[in-house]
Amino acid sequence: MDPTQTPSLVHASTNELVAAEFGAGTADRTGGAVRYLNTASQGLLPERSAAVLRTAVSEMTAGTLDMVRCFEQVDAARASFAALAGVAAEQVAVGTSVAVHVGLVAASLPPGSRVLTVEGDFASVVNPFAVRDDLHVRAVPLAELADTVTADTDLVAFSAVQSADGRIADLDGVRAAARRHGCRTLVDATQAAGWLPLDLGRFDYAVCGAYKWLLCPRGTSFLVVTDESGPLLALHASWVAGESPWEMCYGPVPRPAPGARRYDEPVPFLPYLAAAESLRLLAGIGVDRVAAHNTGLAARFRAAASGAGLAVVPGDSAIVSLPGLGEEGRARAARAGVGVSVRAGDLRAAFHLYNTEADADALLRALTA
Questions:
Q1: How far apart are the C-alpha atoms of 159 and 181, rounded to whole Å?
Q2: How many CA atoms lie within 13 A of 12 on its CB side?
């Protein structure tokens, strides 16, 4: 692919759909205030999702919100995420945060388990293991992860895409090494799901915060538990995790739900009502098409920034990290009306389906002026 040429979303109807949900561009969507290149922090909410929230809030004030319909939409969000992740809906549990999901896996490990993690990975992926003083936790550079897996490793926990700088993990290599040595795997897809085609069924556990690339509100997250996984402790089980929830509201739940639903947290309705709509939107566009758009824009910007003499973390990610710019670079971008973030001291830009070449060019002008 020529990095100076950005692939479109292929079909004019899709471009029209994106414009309808987010405006003609992110600058238009935000009232001309900012070109939003910060999806790696939080994605923009589609108009259809915002409309559902407005209706639900009105129904809550009138006492007409249908609880049964809300639970149906939670399951709809579960099914849509499962399709995006390449797994069955029965393998997906719903929750509110990645840290809670990872904490469930961490709490289920027997004392003395050896956990392999990545240096500088997001705290929610690492800390639930680190706080247990009866586990042996080791961190290695991302590039060395697959080669460091041994027969003594019980679990490998890592992010598919690094939050700090967008580097993509060797998913195939880590999975092959884990299978070869008989250890389990946990992958965090928060910075990948929605733009990077994934088959999360290859891993024992997968977690995903949905409020970034999946365009959902905060308070929506998913846990994938495959058939190969060892048993988890259903620490957060409530009546919603029962085989027949409405018949198991009181006392101990006699029969947990089959599949991963037994690990469901009781989730808030409003975020999941919006999530169901956001995930339907992404499913209709298709991850492959979003991937081509996002990585094409990122490659174009990466090449132009490098050509202008800026240091850039190489790769094929939709996230672009520029070492050394940090807060100064963010301030320059902000003065030009471009929203980016700083992580680990470096400037981070994230390109999603609502971004355009004009957004990328505006950031480059701000950084090189």
A1: 20
A2: 0
Give CA–CA dist 282/229, Å, rounded: 28
Q: How does pLDDT run across 220-278, given as a tens digit for each residue?
A: 999 999 977 778 999 988 999 999 989 989 999 999 998 999 999 999 999 999 999 99
CA–CA gap between residue 171 and residue 154 (Å, rounded)? 17
What is d(CA 56, CA 44) in angstroms, rounded to the nearest whole number?
19
Alpha-carbon gap, residue 126 to 272, rounded angstroms? 26
CA dist., res. 296 & res. 18, Å (int): 17
Nearest 5°: phi and psi at 266? -70, 115
Q: What's the rounded Cα separation, in Å, for the pair 264 and 262?
A: 6
Distances (CA, A) of 150 to 50, 108, 142: 47, 21, 16
Alpha carbon distance 230, 64 (integer Å): 42
* Cα–Cα dist 42/215, whole Å: 8
What is the CA 119 to chain-centroid distance, rounded? 19
- The CA-atom distances, in angstroms, between 48 and each of 44, 156, 277, 306 are 12, 38, 7, 38
User: Beta-carbon neighbour count of residue 170 at 10 Å?
Assistant: 15
Contacts of 246 (CB under 8 A, 6+ apart): none
The pTM score is 0.92
